[in-house]
């Protein structure tokens, strides 16, 4: 009998796992970019395959959502945001509107406990209610100055059909005091469904928040609207930053009587027409196909970050980190007093080194990852000279007294053991230094194969790779070769790939031997000269 119970238990677990992602098999319609793929952000994604009600909220709900607004505001017009009107029935989220008396309504709402930030794709599958109320899937920053409306629909339109047949796709930028509101206007913000009311069926509503100045809207997997820089913040409410802040996700319904007709108490009491049904919500980040640029603790073994501003260029395959990137799966634990600059591409600077994060304060960068040994490469430098920059990892000093001249970029790497699922990197400045300044963080798991290869080449995992490490492209060059200094004429240079295979052999004819990199795929190689080896990283 016990075996039968166990069998039923495992079947239950299996069914729960299968149902956990109701969107399986539905591709993300947005393009993540060359060499990139979509990675699910589980902490803000939900199939709602559990029961939840006020006073009975399971961890599946409370770990991700709260049934209230981001602050104490109770809603627009005749709205009263109220927790009992947000519930789940085992397969869907219900956002309900019910009569509150005196012409007002109790309205359901949920707000994410975890924030999202571009680049990110977010989508729900939902069916709006048959009411004059607004049904909305949107995002809002803590300071309430930046809002993205992925969808805002009105299920019925008393006296006409115009609103019922159109879906509002928009965004807002605000000044809070004195209150000033901008949102784009015109027919392009109201997507027409060919005459069919949106309330008649479930639809998928998505938005790719690509960067601070680009929004792509999708309905049922089709791109229906793109918003670019000219429309994002033409009145400069945000001081030129665009939609750049980390933001909460909100799903709610609203009785917007400040500009819409009010729902009657009788209409609100009709349970067949007063529920905004949400089947699921899914959120994705673009990450490198190879694992480079990945940012979650899902077994990825490589994480590549290009540090800069919210809008500066990002090296292909890398993920942006700005001075406002707060630690979630990755980022700064404290963003106070961290600056960012884009120095431009003059003097041959490439997109890795043109932009930086910097600070005079000690700051921690964290990365969620699986336990193991990792090689961490950091690129230091700026258009100004920097002194005595230091890095510690997992509480151990790894790099000290790193100095760079004006316009010089230096890469240093080290290995570190992680046993708590999170890598902590501490950046600081020693005596005589003003700020630390970095352009890149590259984290790669060290496998047993790579350890054996290093040992075979006369290196150990503990050996620091300092001036003997090459990076291609060179920060100030774009030629398709690297130069190996102090080469012995008549000897041979052998290049191995990370699997230990010989990929090139060159006879040395110059003390500064040039090696062509034509045909080299991106990755890590090892240059061997007279028994001495060094890394070559081709990007």
Question: How are the secondary structure elements laid out?
Answer:
Layout: H1 2-19, E1 36-40, E2 51-52, H2 59-62, E3 65-66, E4 79-81, E5 86-89, E6 93-101, E7 104-107, E8 109-112, E9 120-127, E10 134-140, E11 146-154, E12 166-175, E13 180-182, E14 190-192, E15 203-211, E16 214-219, E17 222-227, H3 229-232, E18 248-254, H4 265-268, E19 275-288, E20 302-307, E21 319-321, E22 330-332, E23 339-342, E24 355-359, E25 363-368, E26 372-381, E27 386-393, E28 396-404, E29 409-418, E30 422-429, E31 436-445, H5 448-456, E32 470-472, E33 481-484, E34 492-497, E35 502-507, E36 513-516, E37 523-529, E38 532-538
Parallel strand pairs: 4-7, 20-21, 32-38
Antiparallel strand pairs: 1-19, 2-5, 3-8, 5-6, 6-7, 6-19, 8-18, 9-15, 9-19, 10-11, 10-18, 11-12, 12-13, 12-14, 15-16, 16-17, 20-31, 22-25, 23-24, 24-31, 25-30, 26-29, 26-31, 27-28, 27-30, 33-36, 34-35, 34-37, 37-38
Give a brief outline of the structure.
With 539 residues, the protein is mostly beta strands. The longest helix has 18 residues, at 2-19.
Rg, Cα atoms, Å = 27 Å
Strand content: 35-45%
What is the class of the largest domain in the CATH system?
Mainly Beta
Give the termini distance in whole angstroms: 60 Å
In CATH, the topology of the largest domain is named Jelly Rolls
Percent range of helical residues = under 10%
Mean pLDDT: 83
Total count of strands: 38
What characterizes the major β-sheet? 11 strands, mixed
Going by helix content, strand content and strand pairing, the class is mainly beta
Shape: elongated
Unreliable parts? 1-20, 291-298, 448-479
Total individual domains: 3
Total of DSSP H or I helical runs spanning 4+ residues: 5
Supply the CATH architecture of the largest domain.
Sandwich
EC number: 3.2.1.81
Organism: Zobellia galactanivorans (strain DSM 12802 / CCUG 47099 / CIP 106680 / NCIMB 13871 / Dsij)
Catalytic activity: Hydrolysis of (1->4)-beta-D-galactosidic linkages in agarose, giving the tetramer as the predominant product
Protein name: Beta-agarase A
């Amino acid at each position: 009998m016990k075996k039968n119970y166990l069998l039923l238990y495992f079947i239950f677990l299996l069914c729960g796992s299968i149902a956990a992602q109701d969107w399986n098999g539905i591709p993300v319609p947005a393009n993540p970019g060359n060499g990139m793929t979509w990675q699910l952000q589980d902490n803000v994604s939900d199939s709602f395959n559990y029961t939840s009600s006020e006073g009975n909220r399971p961890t599946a709900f409370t770990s991700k959502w709260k049934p209230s607004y981001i602050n104490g505001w109770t809603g627009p017009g005749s709205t009263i945001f109220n927790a009992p009107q947000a519930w789940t029935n085992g397969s869907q989220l219900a956002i309900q509107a019910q009569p509150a008396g005196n012409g007002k309504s109790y309205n359901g709402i949920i707000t994410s406990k975890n924030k999202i930030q571009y680049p990110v794709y977010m989508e729900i599958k939902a069916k709006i209610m048959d009411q004059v109320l607004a049904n909305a899937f949107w995002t809002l920053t803590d300071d309430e100055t930046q809002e993205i409306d992925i969808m805002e629909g009105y299920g019925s339109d008393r006296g006409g059909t115009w609103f019922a047949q159109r879906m509002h796709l928009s965004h807002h930028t605000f000044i809070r005091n004195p209150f000033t509101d901008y949102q784009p206007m015109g027919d392009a913000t109201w997507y027409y469904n060919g005459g069919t009311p949106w309330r008649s069926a479930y639809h998928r509503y998505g938005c790719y928040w690509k960067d601070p100045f680009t929004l792509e809207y999708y309905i049922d997997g089709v791109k229906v609207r793109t918003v670019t820089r000219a429309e994002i913040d033409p009145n400069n409410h945000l001081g030129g930053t665009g939609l750049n802040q980390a933001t909460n996700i909100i799903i709610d319904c609203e009785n917007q009587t400040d500009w819409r007709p009010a729902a009657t108490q009788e209409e609100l009491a009709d349970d067949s027409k007063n529920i905004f049904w949400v089947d699921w919500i899914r959120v994705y980040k673009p990450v490198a196909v190879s694992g480079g640029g990945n940012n979650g603790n899902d077994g990825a073994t490589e994480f590549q970050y290009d540090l800069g501003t919210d809008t500066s260029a990002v090296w292909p395959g890398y993920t942006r980190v700005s001075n406002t990137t707060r630690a979630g799966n990755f980022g700064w634990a404290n963003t106070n007093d961290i600056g960012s600059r884009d120095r431009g591409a003059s003097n041959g600077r490439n997109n890795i080194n043109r932009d930086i994060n910097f600070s005079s304060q000690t700051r921690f960068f964290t990365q969620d990852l699986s336990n193991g040994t990792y090689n961490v490469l950091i690129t230091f430098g700026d258009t100004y000279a920097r002194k005595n920059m230091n890095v510690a990892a997992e509480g151990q000093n790894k790099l000290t007294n790193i100095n760079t001249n004006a316009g010089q970029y230096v890469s240093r790497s080290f290995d570190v053991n992680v046993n708590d699922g999170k890598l902590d990197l501490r950046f600081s400045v020693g005596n005589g230094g003003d700020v630390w300044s970095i352009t890149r963080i590259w984290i790669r798991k060290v496998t047993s194969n790579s350890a054996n290869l290093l040992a075979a080449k006369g290196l150990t995992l503990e050996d620091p790779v300092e001036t003997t490490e090459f990076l291609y492209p060179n920060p100030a060059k774009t030629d398709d070769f690297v130069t190996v200094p102090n080469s012995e004429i008549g000897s041979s240079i052998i290049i191995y790939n990370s699997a230990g295979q010989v990929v090139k052999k060159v006879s040395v004819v110059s003390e500064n031997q040039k090696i062509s990199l034509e045909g080299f795929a991106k990755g890590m190689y090892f240059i061997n000269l007279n028994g001495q080896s060094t890394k070559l990283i081709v990007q």
